[in-house]
Amino acid sequence: MSSGGVVVEQQQSSWLVQRLQASAGPQSFVAVMDWLLNDPAYGYYGSGQVRFGSGGDFVTAPSQGPVFAELLARQLRPCLDALAAESGPLTLIEWGPGDGQLMRDLIAGIGVESPAWLDRLELVLVESSPALQARQRQTLAGSAVPVHWCSPQQLAAEPRRGLIVAHELLDALPVQRFGLQNGNWHEWLVGLDGQQQPCWQVGAGLAPAVLEQLEQLGLPPGGGGRPDGWSSEWCPALGPWLEQARACLRQGWLLAIDYAMPASRYYAPSRDGGTLLACREQRTSTELLRDPGRMDLTAHVCTTLVEQLAAAAGWRWQGAALQGEVLLQLGLAQEITALSEPGPLALADRLSRREQLLRLVDPHLLGGFWWLLLESDSATPPQRPACPPAWWPS
Questions:
Q1: Which of 78, 97, 142, 337 is most exposed, with the fewest beta carbons within 10 Å of its own?
Q2: In terms of DSSP bridges, do strands 184-192 and 27-28 run parallel, antiparallel, or are they unpaired?
């Protein structure tokens, strides 16, 4: 590495130290995780350092090819059909759209079918990172459907009728780490050690409201038999985000797709350490404070928490299911079978498509994702699809 590269590395690794030195004592990981991911100058997403795909830091379903979007469109199309029964514009919102591949492939697939409401459809992307917005504009250049970038505040000022898709978004919401110390739940903070390096420190006991929420998730005061030092995390940002998303939608549905599990598994006594991981160059690590801003940080979504918070945020919880099960219901098996029958696709294309399909349901790869569906709770709830998609949980 050149001397110039060394300077860049030192600047990259020292910014978190400087941020903590400027703070009034150790900080909640809620704040630190937000810095590490969303800081506009140094954050992994905020500064645009994120690298998608097999040659980047992690693989997403859209980065594998267009087949995921083709199957997802089978879920979304009947919902848009139902909303289109009323006059007026329709909106497909993606919150946290990455590099724009998923939206590009979705619109390409829907456009081929040319539904009667296509000229009433607009795409809205909610993206706070200017660097990622630039990538998305390049990916979606020439879209046959109008594309707009809006902040949550702009959307809330003019709520839409349509669908919100949040693909691999909720796992990046900042979480609070906590652990059992002398029989009580305490927050884990990030401070500086004697060498002025970031380190974990035990903070004060958790607030009564947090203790009440954790008890609803199966974590009683005193730990319920868990040993001292047992730790996990929960997402205090989830409730506010659900409220924010609901404010953006006058009528319609929210579909979140992410690594997830119910509270009974999330907070099982055997799951000491929680689910938080750092990811870089296709490798995961529990060293969350190493290489600050240069690694993705992710925590599983607790489906039970989403269900518990939905009603207060203005949603009706519809249900959740493993991605592998959902995609099989949406026709993935038939797609694989069709590849063995005579057709126009070349052998190499058949094999590539088959590999994409199998990765989507492999429980060790992308099949471990969950689909969570919520419906807007309002005086005039959305009309259910006349022909609902194969997966409709309620």
A1: 142
A2: antiparallel
**pLDDT tens profile 317-333:** 999 999 989 998 998 88
77 found inside a domain? yes
Task: Identify whether residues 109 and 196 lie together within a single domain.
Answer: no
User: Could you read off the pLDDT of 195-214 as tens digits, one per residue?
Assistant: 999 999 999 999 999 999 99
Alpha helices of the chain — where are they, by DSSP H?
3-21, 29-38, 67-83, 101-113, 130-139, 152-157, 208-216, 238-247, 263-266, 303-310, 323-329, 332-338, 347-361
Q: How many CB atoms lie within 10 A of CB 159?
A: 16
Give the chain's length. 394
80: its two tokens: 């848009």
Q: Is 211 a domain residue?
A: yes
Range of the domain at 365: 62-173+236-376
User: Which pLDDT belongs to residue 338?
Assistant: 79
More confident residue, 350 or 329: 329
What are the DSSP calls for 53-117, one per residue?
STTSSB--TGGG-THHHHHHHHHHHHHHHHHTTSSS-EEEEEES-TTSHHHHHHHHHHHHH--TT
pTM: 0.92
Task: For residue range 217-230, list pLDDT tens digits in order.
Answer: 999 999 999 999 99
